[in-house]
Structures are given as structure tokens and as C-alpha cells.
Structure to design on (293 residues):
């Protein structure tokens, strides 16, 4: 009897450990800024994530997965993305696909807040709120994060651009303001992840080149892809680092210069180091991480 009770007790302990070790589910909702358009990131390790649209995309979610694996964390990573879409598309066309009890959701809308009215956050707020409410209905404890995206060089430096004549940080700040308003309207949202501000920081600190239209300075990275709109591999890497640090609470610098994904998407150890430092500094400046040596 004693042996039976000991065996039963051990089985219960192991069962409890297994239950406690359940992978945390995380869903990425977005568009080309999530799936990695114009870069090798788009098809990066698609077998490590679940593309709910069945398009074989890895993207930023696959970079996040690689980071968390190296950090010893266990996430079940899924994504639902479509190019050029805002939150209204995901709510009206894809709700049946994403309507599950997720543990964590990271989401962003169109790059200008509204394709028809650049800089206007009304559509973003309306449908971002509806999405947030739908996610909460399925899991009241869901942790929702918003990603404030970057300044587009094509809309800042070209005369036809909506932000023409403003500094390169101007568009990123306008986008951030829109997401801050969405968060204010939805107090349950955990945080706005400062990807656009991290891009600005990379430029202001000399890690990245400010204007790809006049060439890229030696020793600096170009954060934009060939269309000066989407990101390069370096730009998506920086995005993924900010998401990683903001969601997990871990210092992006802990991944190290020899971080696996950086090498696999063509970044040097020095570039990985610099971008990790930028992500860390921005997350600290934003209050998302506590400063550490």
C-alpha cells in the first residue's frame, strides 16, 4: 500500500509538472510588417510556427520563436497575416480563424493607421477595440500587445509622401500616438511595443542609416527593404527583438552576438549586438524593461 501511494504521489507530481510546463500560446495578427515582406525573413523557419492561413510564412513570429527557444522558453507561435490590411479586415474576415483562447496576442494594423486617411487613428481604434473585446471573450486573461510600427522612408523623403518635410522620427511618433490612443481606450491591453521608436533610436545613434535614397553609410545597416517601405532583414530583426523583450520581460542583449537567427538571415555578430542594444535601450526608455548592467 505504501509503495502504491508513493507511486501515485509521484505520478501526480509529474502530471502537475507536465501541466505547468504547457507551452504558452501566442498569436501574431498583422500584415506584411509581420510576415517579413521584401526580406528573407518571410520564409524563415516556417516549420517552427503555425500559419493560420496556410501560406507557409515564418516572418517575425518565427524570429520570436527562435529567440524564445534560445532563452529556454516554450511558446506555441501562430500567425494570421495578410498584406496591406488593417484591423477591420482581421475582425470582419478572419475572426473565425483567430477566435480561440490565446494566452498572448501581438497585433498591429496598417502602416499609416488608415490607408485612406493617413495619420487618422479612428479606424484603428474602432476595430482594434472590437478585436481586443473578441479576444477577451475567449480568454479573459489574454495578454494583448500592440506594435507601433516604423516610419516609411517613401512617405518621408519623397515629395509625394504624406510625411514629406518632417523628420524621419515624425511618422513613427504619429503612428505611436495612434496606438497609445487605442490602448487608452482599452485598459486591458498590456502595452504598446515601441518598434517605430526603436527604429528611430537606431538611426539617431548611428546604428542605422537615416536616408536610403542617398545611399547607405559604411558601417551602418539599412532598416528598410528595397521599396523603402517594408523592412530589411535587419529591420525585422529589430522588430522581433522589441517584441521579444516586451512580451517576455527578458533583456534582448541576453541573446548574444552569436544569436542563431541573426546569422541565418545574414546579419553579422556586430550588427546583432548593436540591434540588440538598441532594442534594450528603447524598451528601458519606454518603461518596458528595468535597466540592468
Amino acid at each position: 500500500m505504501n509503495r502504491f501511494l508513493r507511486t501515485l504521489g509521484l505520478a501526480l507530481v509529474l502530471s502537475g509538472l507536465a501541466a505547468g510546463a504547457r507551452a504558452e500560446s501566442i498569436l501574431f495578427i498583422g500584415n506584411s510588417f509581420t510576415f517579413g515582406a521584401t526580406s528573407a525573413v518571410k520564409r524563415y523557419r516556417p516549420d517552427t510556427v503555425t500559419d493560420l492561413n496556410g501560406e507557409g510564412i515564418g516572418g517575425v513570429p518565427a524570429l520570436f520563436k527562435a529567440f524564445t527557444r534560445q532563452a529556454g522558453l516554450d511558446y506555441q507561435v501562430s500567425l494570421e497575416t495578410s498584406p496591406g490590411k488593417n484591423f477591420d479586415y482581421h475582425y470582419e474576415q478572419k475572426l473565425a480563424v483567430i477566435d480561440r483562447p490565446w494566452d498572448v496576442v501581438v497585433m498591429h494594423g496598417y502602416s499609416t493607421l488608415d490607408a485612406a486617411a493617413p495619420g487618422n487613428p479612428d479606424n484603428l481604434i474602432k476595430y482594434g477595440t472590437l478585436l481586443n473585446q473578441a479576444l477577451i471573450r475567449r480568454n479573459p486573461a489574454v495578454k494583448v500587445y500592440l506594435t507601433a510600427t516604423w516610419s516609411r522612408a517613401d512617405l518621408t523623403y519623397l515629395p509625394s509622401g504624406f510625411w514629406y518635410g518632417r523628420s524621419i522620427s515624425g511618422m513613427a511618433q504619429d503612428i505611436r500616438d495612434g496606438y497609445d490612443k487605442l490602448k487608452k481606450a482599452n485598459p486591458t491591453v498590456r502595452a504598446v511595443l515601441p518598434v517605430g521608436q526603436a527604429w528611430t533610436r537606431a538611426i539617431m545613434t548611428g546604428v542605422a542609416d537615416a536616408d536610403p535614397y542617398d545611399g547607405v553609410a559604411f558601417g551602418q545597416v539599412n532598416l528598410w527593404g528595397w521599396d523603402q517601405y517594408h523592412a530589411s532583414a535587419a529591420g525585422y530583426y529589430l522588430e522581433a527583438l522589441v517584441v521579444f523583450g516586451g512580451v517576455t520581460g527578458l533583456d534582448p542583449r541576453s541573446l548574444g552576438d552569436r544569436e542563431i537567427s541573426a546569422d541565418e538571415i545574414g546579419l553579422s555578430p556586430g550588427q546583432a549586438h548593436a540591434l540588440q542594444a538598441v532594442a534594450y535601450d528603447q524598451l528601458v526608455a519606454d518603461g518596458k524593461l528595468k535597466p540592468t548592467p
In short: Residues 4 and 10 are 10 Å apart (CA to CA).
